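Human: We require from you a protein record containing the residue sequence and its fold in token form, and nothing else.

Assistant:
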Amino acid sequence: MYQIQQINKVDLAIANDIIKPAYYAIDALCHEESTKRLLETIDNRIIVSPTELDSSHYQSLASFYKTQQYMDAIGVASEKGGYFIYPSASGDFSQFDPRTKKWYQAALTKHKQPSLNGPYRRLSGLLILSVSQAVLDDEGNVIGVMFLGWDLRNFQYQIEQYTLGATGYMMVLDQNNNIIVSPENHSWLSKRPIDVGLFDLEQLENKTDGIHKIILNGAAKYIRIKITDTGWKIISVIDTDELSEKIVEVIKKIVSIFVLTLLVVILAIGTLAKSFATAIESLSEFTTSIAQGHQRVHFNIKRNDEIGTLGNSINQMVKELFKREKEFKTLVENTQDGISRVDKNLRYVYVNPAMQHLFDWPVKSFMGKTIKDIFSDENWIQVMTVNKQQVFNTALEVTFLQEYCRANGKTSYVHVHVIPEFDQSNQVETVLCVFRDVTKLKDMEKAVIRANSLNLVGEMATGIAHEVRNPMTTVRGYLQFLSLKEIGLQYSGQFKTMIEEIDRANAIIKEFLTLAKDFTIDLSMTDLNSIIQAVFPLLLANAKMTNKDIILNLQPLPMLLLDEKQIRQLLFNLVRNGLEAMESHGVVTISTAVCDKEVVLSIKDEGSGISQCIVDKIGIPFITTKDTKTGLGLAICYTIAERHNARIEFVTSPQETIFYVSFINMKLY
């Protein structure tokens, strides 16, 4: 850990004392207008002494140089080969071309960014760090390169003060593996490790993980390495024997502290165990009560320690838990959707009150029983059992729509959503079923389909009925005329058949016209019972012809807004359907009564009921099971009811079928 701290200090010193100041300085000078003018002035001349140039040309560089304590030299080189250095340089520069130097080429490569170049030694032995950067004109073209020489003496001295124990020290190598700091041997400076026989310091990039043992200058050392963002390598070096001794000392201290701590912990446990025993026992009893569903429990313990804090937290948690449970229970038990839960044996473990209204069974009758114990509808039992078992096996939700035959014989449509509930091992423990009665929605769908069909037929009737009846009337007239002639007497039977078929076609067209949208009705305040009694003799006569009977059960009724002709048509159609559905000696019962806010006309037959395959299609034109019928009778009845703001409902079974026509009781409005 101490090694890492020292390495981080060196890393910080490199960044703050060398790299950042040098980069900032050269970047600022490259953007100075005075630097660009200086490059224009020197052109292609080599100037190694400031006395060769008027001071006004380099005043800015000189001023900056004097403010920097560790700057060794500053200068510029132009694209034409010119060169200027401050404060001065010695040596032979007659063949000197700065453009061939590495620092110049490196600056061109980096373009707008500073380039950090390897250190070099002056004749005096000083180690100098070189930084260079391209100078650009206003159009972004390179016109030269500026360079700085940074004196590393202060940095070297600072790093050499970072020691590791008695024998440890820090080394620094630049990005080219040149040694910059070496407290052990100053003769290694500016040289590569391989040049001075330090082979273990080569390929340091592969040794950045942890501590490595190497041979350094003939002695065994432990090193730790960090490579900075600029590629410099920071190496902490410590003697192996010294590090081993320190490790042993640390282990001894750790063992001593551990033993002492263990003794203290054992004593503390013994002291606190008795104190905690009662509190923990009380807490256990408290949690058991919660698990058993006791809501009015409170963990009453007066302690200021963790047990007391835990007790207060549990009390708050229990309070919140039962509050949420109450909210959830209120929601579940007041929803109109039926909700039940069954276990793996498909036995009910919970049902909400809505189940009683949905299925006509008391809530208590469900508990602990299976679906077969409750329901009698075999189809419902089979579908529900299969879907519940599927959810237990697959752990996947299922939804479906299913018919349910109620106790009163009516069919309800129920939307069912079956949801798996998982235990702690993520296995399906119970299944939750949510039931929603969508009978009214299905009835609305049927009504829409029926209305659309009636509208279509009405439009057809309006468009073609008159065009067909006119030529048929002409044909019927000629058939009657020809049948009376002597030539037609021998074909009188055939003429009669043709006239009957034309009359039958006219009757069908008349029914079509009854369905037309623009059919006008004549409403007046009328007694429904009087209409029934007026047509009863004709209806009864038709019934007697087939050895059947009709019974009236009429109750006093208020006056209604009715079209008498239309209501007669409705009665004829419904009674005729009832008579045709029965065998000999069957009875049709026509009843009237006041129910709530409605006047109800009911027509009951003793037939074998309506086939299930067409129950949902009743009232749709052309739907019939009779070979000689058009399927328009009930469609006309529904249209007449709609024109009177009434509605038609029916109940059917293998023993009987009852049609109900409900009119609004005008007396209540």
Observations:
- Residues 240-291 form the longest helix (52 residues).
